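This part of the workshop introduces the protein records we will be handling. Getting from the letters to the tokens is the skill we practise here. The record below serves as our worked example for the rest of this section.

…
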Amino acid sequence: MYSMTGFGKGDYRKDGLEIGVEVRSVNNRFLDVSIKCPHILNPYEETMRALIRESLSRGHIDVFVSVLDKREKARKLYVDLAAARAYAEAASTLKREFPGIADDTTVTFLLKSPDVVRPEEATEADEVLLGGLKEALALALSALREMRRKEGERLKADLLSRMGTIAALREKIALRAPLVAEEYRKKLTDRINEFLGGKVDESRILTEAAVFADKCNIDEELTRLSSHIAEFKKICEEPVVGRKLDFLVQEFNRECNTVCSKSNDAALTAYALEMKNEIEKVREQIQNLE
């Protein structure tokens, strides 16, 4: 079981190349990845997203990448001859227009002119940079997964504890439920005796009690609650559980609401409401799970 909240950091430092990756994750219904990195890494953004998808299935993921490249690399310069020719022609025009001004047009002048010479953009992938990025990201994701696992284990312990509370309340309801119909029969008998002076139609009382017992019968709900509790514990042993548990908690709520509507008994209703409170706490915790 994994939480969706965590942090991981990874670094690559070798031969003058330093890459740092930080990954933070918080709750989200789906996998949502946001990457902030230097312009030089833009061509590798989809590679980063693919690696993240292999490691994580849910959560909002913020990725921060820094690069310090001190490697000695052969640099190419692009000479824009058209721009140089335009500057030279402009200089000649000015010389003809102002013959009295000294002419210092040289190659150096052209080199200093804007856009005549500029660095040539690399067109091939930098395999060393890409390899370092993958290594740093893998380390960050590994650290993130470990933090999410530890937090997930803590949440698992809390959820199972609350499930134990729900199971105990279910047993209290199961013990109380059979007494409700019997108490109703006794109250009905006493009331009739009070008004009729002891002239009681026992068969009529039994019929009324049977109808009441049928209306407030919650055996099916209790059976389904037991099944849901067992299924909840089973799912908790799986690695990715968020969506499954979220659906199951809806079923818990449905059964609990039915028990409340059928109870017609203050003590039984109190147990059911206490169970609803625990179910809501479970639902809130599940929102943190992957």
User: Anything to note?
Assistant: The chain is about 60% helix and 15% strand. The radius of gyration is 37 Å. The longest strand covers residues 59-69.
